[in-house]
Design brief:
9 strands; 4-stranded antiparallel beta sheet; mainly beta
């Protein structure tokens, strides 16, 4: 089952509205905001029951269950994404106003341990892995 969470802004920045129109990128650029979409897909049975918190600069902005998506908008700048799972390698993104960034949160079982990898991917890769992303913004 596909669910979507929307975070109003990264870190402690002022709230910005979330827009689901074709002009969203233009509006985001004018507002000085960027959009980050973090999603889970293609997981093993052993990781499907895991729910992880996602953060930017150590400020939680959403939780991801299997096949979930979190959409967050915030001011342009550098952000380091992480999760609540120990051992997650952080991902640093340099966000540009008006752009949308896709991040695949991969959970994998390795020798009885669960490892989380955050990977920035192109839009077409994200749509191939999580088709429900089509039209999300």
């Amino acid at each position: 089952m596909f669910t979507k969470s929307i975070a109003a802004a990264f870190a402690l920045a002022a709230s910005f509205g979330f827009t689901q129109t074709a002009a969203a990128a233009d509006e985001a650029a004018q507002a000085g905001t960027a959009t980050v979409i973090v999603y889970r897909a293609d997981e093993a049975v052993g990781t499907r029951s895991m729910r992880i918190a996602v953060s930017a600069n150590d400020n939680k902005f959403g939780k991801l269950s299997s096949d979930d998506v979190v959409v967050a908008a915030g001011p342009a700048g550098q952000y380091t994404l992480g999760t609540s799972m120990s051992g997650t390698r952080p991902l640093t993104l340099n966000l540009t106003a008006g752009n949308t960034y896709y991040v695949h949160a991969k959970l994998e079982m390795r020798g009885g341990r669960i490892e989380v990898t955050l990977e920035q991917v192109p839009e077409q890769v994200a749509l191939g892995q999580q088709p429900e992303l089509e039209g999300i913004i």
